[in-house]
Amino acid sequence: MFKDSPYSVRLASVLVSIYLVMLGLYYLQDLLILIAFALILAMVLLPLCRGLENKGFPRSVAISICLLFSVAIIAGLISLLAFQIIEFSNDWPMFIKKAEKWISGLQTFLSRNLNISRKKQMLELSNQTIGLLKNSGSILTATFSTIVHSLTILILIPIFMFFMLSYRSFFFTFLAMVFPTTEKDMLRGIMGKTGSVVQGYLVGLLFVMFTVACANSLGFWWIGVDYPIFFGITTGLLLLIPYIGIWIGASLPILLSLATLSPSHALAIVAWIAAVQFIEANFITPLVIGSKVSINPLVAMLALLGGEMLWGIPGLILALPFTAIIKVIFDHVPTLQPYGFILGEAPKRVKETEAP
User: What total of structural domains would you count in the chain?
Assistant: First the structure.
């Protein structure tokens, strides 16, 4: 009956449905972000769980082993970072003294060249400090709330993963009951392809993060930055945030080099990060991840912007894998295949012969 409706009615219905879905995604973001991360990570652990089950382990034991293995890896990485942070904090007073010396030199420069007296500079700095202190209560409250919320999510994600992996056959049976019997093969194809796409994406992303972390650690060491391994790992981990994550991670070594070494060292870091990001974005990521995801750059950029607008930083992290999942669904449903086509890379034949 819906197909017989006028085009304007169908278009309005689709637009209203999209609006309601986006509204739900926004207002239920706390719950949906938790489910989304648990689902993605459960897909990654699924092959390992199946392998252990095939060796005779009960499903609950196999899942527990996989989760403990994952937690052990994450704990090891956190321990490495914590050790570096402790060393970094021990040298913090030295960095403060060097920064004060650099600020004093900057004040002298401003006083001589821009005719801004030290007294006026200190007055402005004092006003800014007072304003910051007035808002310190709300800042501390927001920070504490964010930390508690993040810890709650980190605790709940493994629990959700356990139940998703444990009840996966139950969920598949439910989906098989929802869809007609004639669509079971299509459903199996979607489930299998979705798992392989997500696994390929995340494994490839881990490889890219490791490569970038090693390259930046080497570059920071060569430039002469203190704690190159710590800053290198940080920039690698922040690749979870596409495009801008590496620069967020590089901001601290740039500022420290500017304050404790020299402007030339800071410029060297900027140049090195720019070179690494260029190589990563144009060669490593397309080679390692591009073949798994097969999303064209325009759609990827729109997905990242939309994900950030809906869910903030978690949306940036989840945008690409879920766009890849949506493309898999579109590719397997005949009536939605044109939309899957527009999400993917344009074939060379279309570029050369059918482009206007």
Answer: 1
